[in-house]
Amino acid sequence: MSARSLAAILLVGVVALPTVARVAGTPAPARRTVYTKQLPAGEGQDLVASKCQTCHSAMLITQQHKDSTGWEKTVTLMEKWGARLVPEDHATVVAYLLRSYGPAKK
Ligand code: HEC
Predict the structure, then answer these.
(1) Which of 35, 46, 78, 99 could join 63 in a cystine, given CB atoms 3.0 to 4.6 angstroms apart?
(2) Structural domain contains residue 8
(3) At what angle do helices 68-81 and 87-100 cross, to 10 degrees?
(4) Whole-prediction pTM
């Protein structure tokens, strides 16, 4: 190895190392769970927990805000896709979702 290439390697080390150290030392942005998987207590909670979480996590529900028409449509769609709810349970689930995840307050 020639003296020139040795000098080049040393130079790269001197320039690159502090850069690598600086990047490695940067703290990663904090991870935040914005939407919970926890369903709020109330009539209908156990129905949603047992009938709606067979295909996806509750997070898909807890991140929503819908009015009564919106929840009615969603629950009807989920039933078409395979959620098994008898008619009384359908109404209980829609009411629970509306109470817990109604329209967003401004
Ligand atoms: C047979 C499987 C299945 C069941 C049971 C099920 N879902 Fe879903 N759900 C899906 C699929 C598939 C999606 C679409 C997922 C995606 O877009 O990543 C979805 C999406 C959703 C969404 C987000 C999309 C939207 O329209 O807002 C909500 C909210 C939701 N489901 C609520 C429910 C509720 C409430 C129940 C219980 C009544 C339920 N799901 C039961 C399969 C199911």
Answers:
(1) 35
(2) no
(3) 130
(4) 0.77
